[in-house]
Amino acid sequence: MICIVAEKPSVARDIAGVLGHPEKHDGYLIVGHYTITWAFGHLVTLADPEVYDPAWARWTWATLPMLPERFQLVPIAKSQTQLKVIHRLMQKADRIICATDADREGELIFRYIYRLAGLHKPVERLWLSENTPQAIQSALAAMKPLSAFNALAQAAEARAQADWLVGLNATRAVTLRHGVPGQGALSVGRVQTPTLALIAARDAEIAAFMPTPYWQVAVTFQAPQGEYVGLWTDQDTDRVTDKTHAQRVVERVPPGTPGTILSVERQRVTVHPPLLFSLNDLQKEAHRRFGMTAQQTLDAAQALYEKRLTSYPRTDARVLTHAIAETVPDRLHTLPETYQAWTAACRVPTRLINDQKVAEAGHYAIIPTAHGGPIPPLSDAEQHLYDLIIRRFIAALMPTGEDERITIRTQAGGEHFITKGTVIITEGWRAVLKDVNRQEAVGEEQEEIEERGPIPAGLHDGESVEVHRADVQEKTTKAPPRLNDATLLGLMEKHGLGTPATRARIVEVLLARGYVQRQKKALVSTAKGQALLQVLPAAIQSPELTGQWEAQLETIAAGTGSVVEFMTKIRAYTQELVTAAQIHAAQAIGTDLGACPVCHQGRIVAGKKAWGCSRWREGCTFTIWKTVAGKTLTESQVKTLLVGKTTSELKGFTSKTGKPFSAKLRLVDGKIQFVFESPKKHRA
């Protein structure tokens, strides 16, 4: 028996349908000598801290850093029933085929399941970029030993272990150092925190922005061929920072002022088609056009993939392999009738073929499949994406466009004016996107654009013109825009934060934890998120450092990087992070007064109303109130008590009856007692 393990039930059904007529069973399908089963994403995960050491269940400085010598795997509780089904089928099988999603995370899902089964049987890898019957048949005929993907698995495991080490240790250290009792943990993540820092940095830039007024002088010139508008210019700027200056320019060019066209420059420009969609590009375009979040786009793209309409979505590639390029005619031929008017002009340019880039990404760009049959029912989001993917696919295969960029320099009244415009000579590939480009992006904050009007044809050097009208237009510099899903994804890709499969989830985690919120389409850091960043070390906020780690993971996946070297750096970084937090906690001014006299393990730290033990989470209740019998104690007096000494006689106490008295203080069994000089002195 051959056991095939897919990542989702829908993929298992697709594979089973290609192999024959499946029999349905509880948690699996049978087709001849094949048994096809499935996971529901992750069924196995890295163990929680207390599995390694019961003491690690407690959030204390004494348990940090947590650095397991060997990571352990445990079943995810809610998925144990299906995991048992898979393990039972694996044990009966002669051969096993890994058919989880063909990416780093899919590799990890299978490896964890297989390792927990404790088996040593031959395993082959089914690598699918599409779920069409033809693609599945081709993949079944081209399987490789699972060992051929060991480098990818090593990168996946290193990523998971790095997230465990940095995330859990940093979260506990920061919470112990800066957390407030009753308000939960301060969550820190290897990718999550630098992403939050990017959002907060943009918010800070906007908060610090000071708008500056400026003015532009727009002059309408009358030529024999028609009117055109020129902006006053001085060398390389068309802005005037002095309104009086702008008004003086207008006064020098009243209506009827003669002018001369000094030059007309025309430049022919080739406009190349865009490359194909990567997931990041698709998410950015869907957000700009339809206001879809990154996660909504990923979910819809995954649904299109599972409905066999488009290729695998989690890809960084924008190109195709030679082999896939040969399938383009079939894909074009089977597109819905709506798009057939453009397909005759389509050719695959060499810039769209790069086997090496596809190999590095693991999958080619997102393109439509040669589906051919009726289109299944689609949600609005799926329909929007399907249309975008098809149009981008066709546009990338169409001829280039050609524009003429025109620059006119005009002189009048001793002043110079510049006019710029573009004339489309050949539309080319843009015809496919014309209808899409005319749509107004949902909620998009459009930059203010002055309508200058068309440039008349036939203008030439030395031609005489006349001023028809001159206006002063007041404007103000604008702050940079808030980040949104599209622009944040662009920054994450630029800095190497996360992967196509994880970026959307990172954004959702920040939203769920209250560190970021949506304001219409914008992503804005909250007071909670900003407060967290203020207490975190700069290194853990650094997009550059996390980007370097991601780059090292890529080299591991490519078989050129060292897992040992990467994990050694991660462990050293974790140790440094915890040590720094402990030092800061111990050296914080006015907070650490010494060892706890009761549990002898915690440190005495200051709260708002009292000094208490840092091990309060473990049950140590030692407390010294800052105000005793109406008198506020000093840190020096508390330190004296903590070392077992009696204070000098202190004045300023008030009894319950309101009478003042003096006394010394000492600690007895962790409680403050008054010590009086003589029996005649008043007792509290």
TrEMBL record:
<dbReference type="InterPro" id="IPR034144">
    <property type="entry name" value="TOPRIM_TopoIII"/>
</dbReference>
<keyword id="KW-0413">Isomerase</keyword>
<dbReference type="InterPro" id="IPR013824">
    <property type="entry name" value="Topo_IA_cen_sub1"/>
</dbReference>
<dbReference type="InterPro" id="IPR006171">
    <property type="entry name" value="TOPRIM_dom"/>
</dbReference>
<feature type="domain" description="Topo IA-type catalytic">
    <location>
        <begin position="149"/>
        <end position="578"/>
    </location>
</feature>
<dbReference type="InterPro" id="IPR003601">
    <property type="entry name" value="Topo_IA_2"/>
</dbReference>
<dbReference type="InterPro" id="IPR013497">
    <property type="entry name" value="Topo_IA_cen"/>
</dbReference>
<dbReference type="GO" id="GO:0046872">
    <property type="term" value="F:metal ion binding"/>
</dbReference>
<dbReference type="InterPro" id="IPR013826">
    <property type="entry name" value="Topo_IA_cen_sub3"/>
</dbReference>
<keyword id="KW-0238">DNA-binding</keyword>
<comment type="similarity">
    <text>Belongs to the type IA topoisomerase family.</text>
</comment>
<dbReference type="Pfam" id="PF01131">
    <property type="entry name" value="Topoisom_bac"/>
</dbReference>
<dbReference type="GO" id="GO:0043597">
    <property type="term" value="C:cytoplasmic replication fork"/>
</dbReference>
<keyword id="KW-0479">Metal-binding</keyword>
<feature type="domain" description="Toprim">
    <location>
        <begin position="1"/>
        <end position="132"/>
    </location>
</feature>
<dbReference type="InterPro" id="IPR003602">
    <property type="entry name" value="Topo_IA_DNA-bd_dom"/>
</dbReference>
<dbReference type="InterPro" id="IPR013825">
    <property type="entry name" value="Topo_IA_cen_sub2"/>
</dbReference>
<dbReference type="InterPro" id="IPR005738">
    <property type="entry name" value="TopoIII"/>
</dbReference>
<dbReference type="GO" id="GO:0006310">
    <property type="term" value="P:DNA recombination"/>
</dbReference>
<dbReference type="Pfam" id="PF01751">
    <property type="entry name" value="Toprim"/>
</dbReference>
<keyword id="KW-0460">Magnesium</keyword>
<dbReference type="InterPro" id="IPR023405">
    <property type="entry name" value="Topo_IA_core_domain"/>
</dbReference>
<keyword id="KW-0799">Topoisomerase</keyword>
<dbReference type="InterPro" id="IPR023406">
    <property type="entry name" value="Topo_IA_AS"/>
</dbReference>
<dbReference type="InterPro" id="IPR000380">
    <property type="entry name" value="Topo_IA"/>
</dbReference>
<dbReference type="GO" id="GO:0003917">
    <property type="term" value="F:DNA topoisomerase type I (single strand cut, ATP-independent) activity"/>
</dbReference>
<dbReference type="Pfam" id="PF13342">
    <property type="entry name" value="Toprim_Crpt"/>
</dbReference>
<dbReference type="GO" id="GO:0006265">
    <property type="term" value="P:DNA topological change"/>
</dbReference>
<dbReference type="GO" id="GO:0003677">
    <property type="term" value="F:DNA binding"/>
</dbReference>
<dbReference type="GO" id="GO:0006281">
    <property type="term" value="P:DNA repair"/>
</dbReference>
<dbReference type="InterPro" id="IPR025589">
    <property type="entry name" value="Toprim_C_rpt"/>
</dbReference>
<protein>
    <recommendedName>
        <fullName>DNA topoisomerase</fullName>
        <ecNumber>5.6.2.1</ecNumber>
    </recommendedName>
</protein>
